[in-house]
Design brief:
By secondary structure, the chain is of the alpha+beta class. It has one domain: Ubiquitin-like (UB roll). The protein is built from 3 helices and 5 strands; from the N terminus they run E-H-E-H-H-E-E-E. Strands 2-1-5-3-4 form a 5-stranded mixed beta sheet. Strand 3 and strand 4 form a beta hairpin. The longest helix has 6 residues. The N and C termini lie far apart (38 Å).
């Protein structure tokens, strides 16, 4: 089980600040975000335990995932 925290546009889109998911792969995680399609999730920055990971990362029980929209500026 991983704990997922949502920030920025991701939090506004889903209406949740955090949730738990029983997932093992990044694809499973992207399919389990409430209120967002996998296509929408692919545009988010995803950190696991505070670090960027590859799309091939396999989750461990207790991992903490942060999902947020990429920074923009002008």
């Amino acid at each position: 089980m991983v704990k997922v925290k949502m920030f920025g546009v991701a939090r506004l889109k889903t209406g949740v600040s955090e949730f738990e998911a029983d997932v093992h792969t990044m694809d499973e995680l992207k399919n389990s975000v409430p209120g967002m399609t996998k296509n929408e999730v692919k545009d988010l920055v995803i950190l696991v335990n505070g670090k960027a990971v590859s799309r091939w990362y396999r989750f461990n029980d207790g991992d903490e995932v942060v999902m947020l929209s990429p920074a923009g500026g002008g």
